[in-house]
Amino acid sequence: MTAKETIVSATNGETHAAPSSPAQRAALEFGKAWTYAPAPEAADHVRIDPRYELFIGGKWVAPSSGKYFDTVSPSTEQKLSEVAEANERDVDLAVKAARNAYEKYWSKLSGIERGKYVYRIARVIQEKARELAIVETMDGGKPIKESRDVDLPLVAAHFFYYAGWADKLAYAFPGRSPRPLGVAGQVIPWNFPLLMAAWKLAPALAAGNTCVLKPAETTPLTALLLAKIIEECDLPPGVVNIVTGAGATGAAVVAHPDVDKVAFTGSTDVGKRIQKALSGTKKKLTLELGGKAANIVFADAPLDQAVEGIISGIYFNQGHVCCAGSRLLVEEGAFEPLLQKLRDRMQTLRVGDPLDKNTDVGAINSKMQLDKIRELVDAGEREGAERFSAPCELPTRGYWFAPTLFTGVSQSHRIAREEIFGPVLAVMTFRTPDEAIEKANNTMYGLSAGVWTDKGSKSFWVSQRLRAGVVWANTYNKFDPSSPFGGYKESGFGREGGRQGLLPYLEVD
Amino acid sequence: MARAKDKETAGASARADERENGFVPPARLSVRKAYKMLVGGQFVRSESGRYIQVADPMSLGGTKENVPWASRKDVRDAVVVARGAWEGWSGRTAYNRGQILYRLAEMLEARQGELSRALERGGLDASRAATETAAAIDRVVSYAGWADKYQSLFSSLNPVAGPHFNFTVPESMGVVGVVAPARPALLGLLGAVLPIITAGNTVIVLASEEDPRTALVLGEALATSDLPGGVINVLTGRAAELLPHLAKHMEVAALDLHGVTPELARKAEEAAIVNVKRVRTRSIDEAAWFDADGATSPRWIERFVEMKTIWHPSGA
């Protein structure tokens, strides 16, 4: 780890960026005050099977290829389990099981009965929330604080929310008689593995579809635990099928001719390939793709509050967030004080063991992702931006990247244009609201944005002019099942959450 | 069940005990229950000390059971606790209200047998009682789902011609007085009360006069759910006597009257002018309560919300 711009020690948290005055420097000398004793979450009650099969038609089925792949903990590089690799034949079986379940059971149930099944799932998720949070953290590297307090409550809430729509679809689209589409093929990413499964399955099931879900290859475990929960809830066999594997498995799900609807969350690159693969077919498609959100801070903003929002906006979940506030646009007058506060705050972030309850920033999800982050950060340095990385001790094993920001970034830099999907913030400045909007919208993405100002009228005015699907005003990274989420432009189409989130799974024309 | 057992014992040894005027000492004496109303989460008798006798067809020798006969003072006490509970209940997140209602469904499911038996003792045959109980539980599930959804159907973003962000959102009204229909005693009471509390209001409900006991058994389930005390207050007694007091109470925001006589409805509507209460008077036939699609329409909720429009300037 190198830090070009400031005097930092890369070994521990005792020294940090030079504060602007000696008094400030003294105030920030906390010695070992930031060092916490280890507070590991007890994981001995959690059982991970040595091997997981495919969940097809209500049964655990060995893959026809006989192939399995390892899933490792990114924080220890240790193998957690091995997981079946589904090929086209397995995917075909899964789609057949889903079709059968759709025709035989699911489409024949009344809305309230369907809803009651989904409520069951929500309830068991609540009961097993801690176990699921621990496995999520082990398999994906995110801090237990986040999987326990953000992911899992949202997962349960999402199932609860959509369970309640199952008997109310006619009221969601008055004057229409909404009908399910049939079999939904769903491919999800590794950044919020269980939450994305919930975002996909809950509305699909409530609307009356059956599902074939393909979790990401680096984080399959919680989806498989969810399959066990679905089994426990006595859902009709085949209503939910989980097929694990890598890109080829996902491609098979998307391409299967008997899939009526495809839902994908992931990169814009893969999203475009899926859109191409589906062109000319009658399949319905929703895409939730990349982002490069602008987080706009006006000089009249409450700066301390803004700092917290900027930090959570970009370092939450190691920056593996499609709606991360990865471009910070600061009004010139606030630049110096804000950056000082931001650097100071970055130094208090605790990076390390994701299972430690004090950890703020966990492990990078995979070696591949770490390489991608390094590549873009190197590009940032090469292109002349100034780097600051929080001084922190990183564990020797596992994949890690210290919270980092770049100043002196121009709009043409790769770090300002491309989605890094890591804990790396690109800081730019602006002088007028119009310039802020111009710069914020100067991206192919349009998933989310943030606005920080104490002036209500300005926050509405700016929000209305941002070409983004979600705008957070004086807050950031807030999610709720009742609140629609999704992108403009190349961040995809379709919404997840809220009444709008039902539409992708219904025929209402 | 305990009573049925008494009967069996009696039947088995009836001959031996003919000389004792039919009396048979039971193998085990069952413990009878004193039925109480639910007010502010507490089980209470009427402060008046009055009672109404209801038949217990399952008992030996046509025993009657006593249920409280609520008074004007009971109504006024209930309004005080309902008004107090409104602050907390309406202040909870919609999600939390939904969770609590779902928990109520779980508690009712666990007491399904007891509720069905109460309906049977109130005059239904076993099959109708079971059908009504199941429908009542599903009705709770349905409204648990409405708790965080009706807002998205009722609210609007209003495209006013000017630099303003203008939106309209539903809010709760306050304390609502309900007269439950005579039949179905359980589904009718829940079906009337649920849309009102789902929207964040609190309720004082006068139970069916034909089968008041089932409402009190329901009260026992309400008290063991996560529903905060005072959100649903169950009174038994005579609507003709109690409704006028509810109707003229200044802290009651609305009335929902099911199956009251036209004379009584008119009396209530007239009294309601005192604080411009919203009054809905309906007589739905029994089958309509079982029509889930109709009876879970969001229009049932919409009658018991206020609409608030907010203007906010939008400009740099």
Written description of the protein model:
The complex is a heterodimer of chains A (509) and B (316). Chain A starts with 21 loop residues before the first helix and ends with a strand. Chain A has helices spanning 22-28, 88-104, 111-127, 129-140, 144-163, 169-172, 193-206, 221-232, 247-255, 268-278, 303-315, 335-346, 367-382, 414-417, 433-441, 456-465; strands at residues 51-52, 54-56, 59-61, 68-72, 79-84, 179-180, 183-187, 210-214, 240-242, 261-265, 284-288, 294-297, 327-331, 386-389, 404-407, 424-430, 448-452, 470-473, 492-493, 506-507. Chain A has 509 residues and is of the alpha/beta class. Chain A is built from 16 helices and 20 strands. Chain A has two domains: 22-35 and 291-473, Aldehyde Dehydrogenase, Chain A, domain 2 (3-Layer(aba) Sandwich); 55-64 and 83-289 and 488-507, Aldehyde Dehydrogenase, Chain A, domain 1. Helices cover 37% and strands 16% of the residues of chain A. In chain A, helix 3 (111-127) runs antiparallel to helix 5 (144-163) and helix 4 crosses helix 5. In chain A, helix 8 links the parallel strand 8 and strand 9 (240-242). Chain B has 316 residues and is of the alpha/beta class. Chain B folds into two domains: 1-31, no CATH class; 72-313, Aldehyde Dehydrogenase, Chain A, domain 1. Chain B is built from 13 helices and twelve strands. In chain B, the strands form four sheets. Chain B has a five-stranded parallel beta sheet with strand order 9-8-7-10-11, with helices on both faces. In chain B, helix 7 links the parallel strand 7 and strand 8 (202-206). In chain B, helix 3 (94-110) packs antiparallel against helix 5 (126-146), helix 4 (112-121) crosses helix 5 (126-146) and helix 4 (112-121) packs antiparallel against helix 8. Chain B is elongated, with a radius of gyration of 22 Å. Chain B starts with a helix and ends with a strand.
